[in-house]
């Protein structure tokens, strides 16, 4: 599981940093390193970019995993550089931004947008396969999630927009229900496709989801 | 005679459709009502067709009722959650609207507000189930209604599928729609009676049968036919028809397009229970198409 991110346009970052001249930059050694949006190289490039923008970079670091509790320690180690900064620019996903704000009294500004939780199917190819809806339908759809793989999230079969097995909205994208049909057919379980699926429960848990184990 | 009575008594029915415009000027709607009433059995009123924001189908359908043209209120699941859908359905019934066509709806990405959230809380099948529950006097949560509707609900299906998987899926979904409460079916535009015949052979095998109204879109030019072939899923205009449109002079295109539509109606009439004419801008020429087809 990886948190998939994309760097914000530099103009947006510049706007978010308005009035803050001294910046400390944080990357993440896990997901944003993998997606090349917040690893060592990208943090270095960002530092240069900020200097070109006329900012003063007080320092920078790449935290091993920005969303876990070791982050507090890393922040302490860098306290002297952070103290001199007006803000921390985070090149971690939003989970890392959340974690950083717990340990810092300075504003934490995200430099990336968090897009989805995905898998890396081949090097550099990230794919969203689950929407974390809390009521898994994969047992009836041959392991392909129509809530995620269909643009409309349809659970009762496809709309009329299938073109040669592709989606009318995006000719490069497979129609989720064609994939489901083909796999169910191989498994000899096409009857599952004919089953009525009731409306989804959009309130399996109240937001924000919280679970306490034990 | 209402659309429901006509279809239920086995008579051949004709529907057409028009889309409200963007804005508050209702002159065009009133003109369409005047031209179409007494000619077609009912007229679909599209619901923000192609995800382009327009005057709503609910109020436009109510204007049709007031003007004496029986509407088929098209309702998509794109813009409303189940609370709003049920509420609008109750409102529709109060305004005298009896026919509802349940659709999933296009994605907002295709329209003029591509950043809008697509709701899709329900889909066409679960919306039909919701209409069935309202007709029984209950909302989706099982609460009893004070005063209940008796909607005549319909659904759509794509006839021409390019793959076997797509054909099977369309048929399976059509059966789900019927099981959920669809009492009539309107099809996507058909240009090949043989394709329609094959489709109807599969439909004839259903345990529960409902009237099918074949979809007709009159061709305006060879270019528009090619455009539909390239861009509209489920529409396939045969080359022979495109060549026919290409061969005629510009001033005769409309006449030829209408003749082709009328011929298609004549050929498919024995196989189905009605036709649905989607004139797309030629709404006022629907009576001409009907006359040409001998309806």
Total of domains of chain B? 1
CATH superfamily of the largest domain in chain A: Response regulator
- Helicity range of the residues of chain B? 40-55%
Helix fraction of chain A? 25-40%
Task: Quote the beta fraction of chain A.
Answer: 15-25%
Task: Give a quick set of tags describing it.
heterodimer, A: 214 residues, Rossmann fold, three-stranded antiparallel β-sheet, 9 strands, 29% helix, B: 295 residues, alpha/beta, TIM Barrel, eight-stranded parallel β-barrel, 11 helices, 14% strand
Task: Write a compact overview of the structure shown.
Chain A contains eight helices and nine strands.
Describe the fold and architecture.
The complex is a heterodimer of chains A (214) and B (295). With 214 residues, chain A is an alpha/beta fold. Chain A folds into 2 domains: 2-115, Rossmann fold (3-Layer(aba) Sandwich); 130-196, no CATH class. Chain A is 29% helix and 22% strand. In chain A, strands 3-2-4-5 form a 4-stranded parallel beta sheet, sandwiched between helices. Chain A has a 3-stranded antiparallel beta sheet with strand order 1-6-7, with no helix packed on it. A two-stranded antiparallel sheet of chain A has the order 8-9. Chain A starts with a strand and ends in a 27-residue tail after the last helix. With 295 residues, chain B is an alpha/beta fold. Chain B is built from 11 helices and 8 strands. In chain B, helix 10 (253-268) packs across helix 11. Classes of the chains: A alpha/beta (214), B alpha/beta (295). At the A-B interface, strand 8 and helix 8 of A face helix 5 and helix 6 of B.
Q: What does the secondary structure layout of this molecule look like, with pairings?
A:
The complex is a heterodimer of chains A (214) and B (295).
Chain A: E1 2-7, H1 10-16, E2 22-28, H2 31-34, H3 40-52, E3 56-63, H4 71-77, H5 79-83, E4 87-90, H6 94-103, E5 108-110, E6 112-122, E7 125-128, H7 146-149, E8 162-163, E9 166-167, H8 176-187
Parallel strand pairs in A: 2-3, 2-4, 4-5
Antiparallel strand pairs in A: 1-6, 6-7, 8-9
Chain B: H1 3-8, E1 13-18, H2 27-36, E2 42-45, H3 57-67, E3 71-76, H4 82-94, E4 99-103, H5 124-136, E5 152-157, H6 164-180, E6 184-189, H7 193-204, E7 212-216, H8 222-231, H9 239-247, H10 253-268, E8 274-277, H11 286-292
Parallel strand pairs in B: 1-2, 1-8, 2-3, 3-4, 4-5, 5-6, 6-7, 7-8
């Amino acid at each position: 599981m990886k948190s998939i991110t994309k760097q914000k346009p530099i103009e947006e970052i510049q706007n978010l940093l308005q009035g803050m001249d001294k910046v400390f930059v944080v990357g993440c050694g896990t997901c944003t390193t993998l997606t090349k949006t917040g690893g060592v190289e990208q943090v270095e490039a960002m530092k240069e970019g900020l200097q070109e923008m006329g900012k003063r970079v007080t320092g920078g670091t790449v935290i091993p995993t920005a969303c876990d509790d070791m982050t507090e320690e890393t922040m302490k180690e860098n306290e002297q550089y952070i103290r001199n900064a007006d803000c921390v620019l985070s090149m971690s996903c939003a989970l890392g931004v959340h974690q950083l704000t717990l340990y810092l009294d300075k504003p934490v500004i995200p430099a990336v947008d968090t897009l989805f939780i995905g898998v890396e199917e081949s090097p550099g190819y990230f794919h969203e396969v689950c929407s974390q809806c809390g009521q898994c339908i994969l047992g009836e759809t041959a392991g392909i999630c129509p809530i995620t793989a269909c643009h409309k999230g349809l659970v009762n079969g496809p709309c009329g927009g299938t073109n040669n097995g592709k989606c009318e909205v995006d000719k490069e994208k497979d129609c989720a229900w064609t994939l489901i049909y083909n796999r169910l057919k191989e498994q000899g379980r096409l009857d599952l496709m004919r089953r009525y699926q009731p409306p989804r429960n959009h309130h399996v848990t109240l937001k924000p989801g919280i679970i306490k184990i034990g | 005679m209402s659309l429901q009575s006509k279809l239920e008594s086995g008579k051949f029915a004709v529907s057409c459709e028009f889309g409200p415009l963007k804005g508050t000027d209702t002159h065009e709607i009133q003109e369409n009502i005047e031209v179409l009433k007494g000619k077609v059995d009912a007229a679909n009123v599209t619901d923000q067709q192609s995800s382009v924001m327009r005057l709503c189908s609910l109020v436009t359908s109510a204007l049709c009722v007031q003007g004496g043209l029986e509407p088929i209120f098209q309702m998509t699941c794109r813009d409303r959650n189940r609370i709003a859908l049920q509420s609008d359905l109750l409102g529709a019934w109060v305004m005298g609207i009896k026919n509802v066509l349940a659709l999933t709806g296009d994605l907002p990405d295709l329209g003029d507000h591509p950043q809008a959230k697509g709701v899709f809380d329900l889909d066409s099948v679960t919306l039909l189930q919701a209409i069935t529950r309202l007709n029984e006097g209950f909302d989706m949560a099982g609460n009893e209604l004070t005063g209940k509707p008796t909607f005549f609900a319909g659904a759509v299906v794509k006839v021409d599928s390019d793959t076997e998987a797509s054909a099977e899926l369309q048929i399976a979904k059509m059966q789900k729609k019927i099981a959920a409460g669809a009492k009539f079916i309107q099809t996507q535009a058909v240009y090949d009676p043989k394709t329609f015949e094959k489709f109807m052979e599969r439909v004839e095998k259903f345990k529960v049968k409902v009237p099918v109204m074949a979809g007709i879109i009159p061709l305006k030019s060879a270019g528009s036919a090619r455009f539909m072939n390239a861009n509209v899923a489920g529409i396939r205009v045969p080359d022979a028809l495109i060549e026919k449109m290409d061969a005629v002079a510009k001033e005769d295109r409309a006449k030829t397009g209408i003749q082709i539509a009328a011929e298609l109606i004549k050929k498919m009439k024995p196989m189905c229970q009605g036709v649905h004419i989607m004139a797309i801008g030629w709404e006022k020429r629907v009576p001409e198409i009907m006359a040409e087809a001998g309806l």
